[in-house]
Write a structure and sequence with these properties.
With 158 residues, this protein is mainly alpha-helical. The protein is 65% helix and 6% strand. The chain contains six helices and two strands; from the N terminus they run H-H-H-H-E-E-H-H. Strands 1-2 form a two-stranded antiparallel ribbon. A hairpin with a 7-residue loop joins strand 1 and strand 2. Helix 1 crosses helix 5. The chain is globular. The protein starts with 11 loop residues before the first helix and ends in an 8-residue tail after the last helix. The mean pLDDT is 93.
């Protein structure tokens, strides 16, 4: 668990361990609940939600949003397309790429899954995030993410 070092500074190794283990456990718990109730996992939910909110997005747009490689993103979309939750159409401004849209089934799935996701996330985090340090913790994570995105840190190389 992260703590301050003897000079009052944040223990960076402890902070990193806490951040990564927290994210992993939260992601896994959400995976379990989404799989149990909707037959999808968190990454699929996130892709579906992004496409709901950004109709006509390209695979490259998802890869940039989630800081993952184009190949992994394309494979993820292939799986969603196979389930008939996502459809591809030719991009009129660049016929080499496709635009992605949710199907009606995909839209219904993401709406139902979002309710499960939100309630599970609230259930798992409310005791801490509703406490006195919750807003500060959320703000710090938001600032870190913004700085990493602004400086293009951690983007895939391939």
């Amino acid at each position: 668990m992260a703590s301050k070092s003897h000079d009052g500074r944040v223990d960076l190794l402890g902070f990193f361990a806490d951040l990564v283990r927290c994210e992993t456990r939260l992601y896994n718990a959400l995976n379990d609940r989404l799989r149990e109730r909707h037959g999808i996992v968190t990454s699929q939910f996130e892709f579906l939600r992004f496409l709901r909110d950004h109709p006509g997005a390209r695979v490259a747009d998802l890869a940039a949003e989630f800081a993952i490689g184009i190949g992994a993103t394309s494979k993820g979309i292939d799986r969603l397309e196979k389930q008939v939750w996502v459809g591809r159409r030719i991009n009129p401004s660049d016929r080499r790429s496709s635009l992605l849209d949710l199907t009606d089934d995909g839209r219904e799935l993401v709406e139902a899954a979002e309710a499960t996701f939100t309630s599970t996330l609230a259930e798992l985090t409310a005791d801490i995030l509703d406490g006195p340090s919750g807003p500060a913790a959320a703000q710090i994570l938001s600032e870190l993410r913004s700085a990493f995105e602004r400086d293009r840190i951690g983007l895939p190389t391939g």
